[in-house]
Amino acid sequence: MAKKKNSSPKSSSNGKSSSGSKTTVNIILLVLVVVFGFFLIKQEYPELFEKKQTPIEMPKPATQSKKKKVVETAKEKTEKTKLEKDKAESTVKGKSEDIKIKLDEKSIAKQSNGIEFDIKNLVNIEIPLLKNSQPSQILKHKGYTASYNKDWKISNWVAYELTAAETYGDVKRTNKFVIDPTVAKGTSATNDDYARSGYDRGHMAPAADMTWDKDAMKESFYFSNMTPQAPSLNRGIWKNLEDKSREWARRDSAICIITGPIVRKNSEKIGKRNVVVPSHFFKVIFSPYSKNPQAIGFIFKNEGSLKTLSEFAVSVDSIEKVTGIDFLHILPDTMEDRVERSYNLKYWF
How close are the terminal C-alpha atoms of the chain, in Å? Predict the structure, then answer.
């Protein structure tokens, strides 16, 4: 008799398969629900998913005490600067008063130590100081000032300012050499002293620089403005420098000119009054109103020369050493030192 087959294992297998499929579906549905829910929440409440930024700490404002300290420090600096400025101005004022006494003129604003000043406020820039003990009578004329030496019968120096406008004058030469009425009687040279001496009556302040006024022209022929000059010098390179000076005056609006003799021991003398014949002559020229003030000096032997003017150029300091005259002393010390110790040939030629 045949046995019946047991069908229970098959039924059990199918049940397990159906149960596994349901579980997988449920998991998938759950994941979909979670994802969908996450998406909905993100759409509704996006701020929940934004990254929070750490706030930047701003520097704390200075405390009241620190502010006060800064203000006090600034105030102290301001007061210190003011005191230093007042002290400097006081020093400048003192120097100006000294100059006023020496020159018998109005107060001059001589300033130094870096304080700005206007050189146009300075007066008598061209007037030098005689450091040695030789005789000196100050003669003030319309076109020039002179330091007259009664022993030499010539001037120690002659100084004047030449402006651009003054170089265009039309007053003619007088050619009348006369005794300066302001010179002490019996101390002046005369025409007789120069006659047949072999020397010209050489102008220190040239007549060609005095064409702007009749009185200035007349006074330029005073014997106090004359020195015995070799004709070859007076009519040669000396005249060339005078012509060149007028060109510089026109270029720079004005220049200061100081001219004079250099006298050696046992110098030659001419005439009954023993007029001293200089061995050399000097000329100092200062341009005060150019952007960068400049000065230059020249020394010529009392004889003619075929050399160029630039070959006779020297520093103002070197002329001071030879003559014992202090030029441009009215300038602030820093400027005086700069313009006197060297010269710029490119500027002048």
Answer: 153
Q: Which tens digits make up the pLDDT trace of 255-271?
A: 999 999 999 999 999 99
Nearest to 347 by CA among 260, 251, 262, 214: 251
Within 13 A of 266's CA, how many CA atoms are on the CB side?
0
Domains of the chain, start order: 85-119 (no CATH), 124-348 (3.40.570.10)
Query: What are the beta bridge partners of residue 157?
Result: 147
Collapsing DSSP to helix, strand or coil, 214 comes out as helix
CB-neighbour burial class of residue 124 (10 A; exposed 0-12, middle 13-18, buried 19+): middle
Q: Which of 141, 203, 280, 329 is catalytic?
A: 203
Any catalytic annotation for residue 203? yes
Mind listing the pLDDT tens digit for each residue in 280-296? 999 999 999 998 999 99
> pTM for the whole thing?
0.68
